[in-house]
Design brief:
By secondary structure, the chain is α/β, with parallel strands linked by helices. The chain is built from 15 helices and 12 strands. The longest helix has 16 residues.
Length: 371
């Protein structure tokens, strides 16, 4: 039995963890027998301290977004084409990564976060690690925090990302445009040829934590009593938000609690005509699979801001510019559905993006690396 080690970072329901779970589910569906183990190197190294660090990290992003954004861009985007310096925090995990590999003895390692990738890249360079390592990128860009030069495979989301790796000297046979992995229970939906004829179902998402400017958006929706749309609000793990929305008893707003079941989430997507969300890599990729148009209303500092820029360049998202105004979101949604050219152009861009993918899914590429 082959052993596969999957490495996200921190135990929060982020895109890194969701992508690892998606790949693990795809592999376990195959005829081959695998033992997949997902490990957060922080928890493995320092146990209970991971909880405290995660709490501080999340509070920092939401309370001091500007300082987080400045540090993020300095550390992972500034001097992007250098990318060879070592970060101070690597020393806290380097030996622990060696111990993890020695304990588990994997046949293959899959990284869905930059830090494990960087550590393994250095172990290959400095200690001669032979275990094959594949990067699975969970955003629509590559920053210098990732290990690149000694990594055996790269699963990227866009042609631009592939070209970036080629410019860094990575051989083209090691790069595959697969998109960001989504769970196999999310089944591809046919392209919708025309907008909804009656009341549209709009899905509102603030991410798995139900955070960001979601409260402010809902305050605007509360005033749309004569709405021509119905809004389903994904509250994530924000139980207070869910209970508050339930207490309002608005006919045009239905709150949804955290949905752990991917099969249930598939049903929700099937009833959705448009999603208003943040540009998290996995959420956006799920919408691509389900053919749900994406309207961005907010973005967290750092990677979500850059994701938004990249997606806009490819015409794969819409951006709400008036949601903070009375009836602004309602009007933008109506304009999208009632503009045939805009609507068809959006789906044309989605089709072009899908055509840019390599013919083999991520699962097949990973399996071939084990043969």
């Amino acid at each position: 039995m082959k052993k596969i080690l999957l490495l996200p970072f921190l135990n929060i329901p982020s895109g890194h963890l969701q992508a690892a779970e998606a790949i693990s589910s795809h592999l376990q569906e195959s005829d081959n027998k695998f033992y997949c183990k997902t490990v957060d190197i922080f928890s493995y190294s320092y146990g209970k301290y991971e909880k405290y660090v995660t709490k501080i990290y999340l509070e920092w992003i939401h309370r001091h977004p500007k300082s987080y954004n400045q540090l993020y861009r300095h550390m992972v985007m500034k001097s992007l084409h250098e990318g060879k310096e070592k970060y101070f925090y690597e020393r806290f995990f380097y030996k622990q990564m060696e111990n993890l590999i020695s304990d588990f003895r994997p046949d293959l390692i899959l990284c869905t976060h930059a830090l494990p990738s960087r550590l393994l890249n250095n172990l290959k360079k400095e200690k001669g690690l032979k275990t094959p390592v594949i990067n699975i990128y969970t955003d629509f860009f590559i920053h210098k925090g990732w290990g690149i030069y000694h990594i055996d495979g790269h699963l990227v989301a866009t042609t631009k990302m592939k070209n970036f790796l080629l410019s860094k000297g990575v051989k083209k046979e090691r790069i595959f445009i697969t998109g960001i992995p989504v769970h196999p229970l999310l089944k591809k939906r046919p392209i919708i040829p025309e907008p909804p004829k009656f009341k549209a179902n709009i899905l509102i998402s603030g991410g798995s934590m139900g955070s960001g400017k979601l409260y402010s958006l809902i305050q605007q929706l509360k005033n749309c009593r004569s709405s021509s749309h119905h809004y389903f609000v994904l509250c994530g793990k924000n139980h207070n938000l869910y209970e508050k929305l339930r207490s309002y008893r608005f006919k045009h707003i239905t709150p949804l609690p955290y949905i752990a079941s991917r099969k249930m989430m598939d049903l929700v997507y099937n009833q959705t005509d448009l999603i208003v969300t943040k540009p998290g890599g996995v959420t956006v990729s799920e919408c691509f699979i389900k053919r749900v148009p994406i309207m961005i209303y907010d973005k967290l500092p750092g990677q979500e801001e850059i994701n938004c820029q990249e997606l806009k360049q490819m015409n794969l998202t819409l951006e709400s510019k008036r949601w903070e105004l009375p009836n602004g979101l309602e009007e933008e949604i109506r304009d999208f559905f009632h503009s045939p050219n805009t609507y068809s152009h959006y789906y044309s861009s989605m089709y072009d993006y899908e055509k840019s993918m390599d013919p083999y899914p991520a699962k097949d590429i990973i399996l071939s690396s084990l043969s």
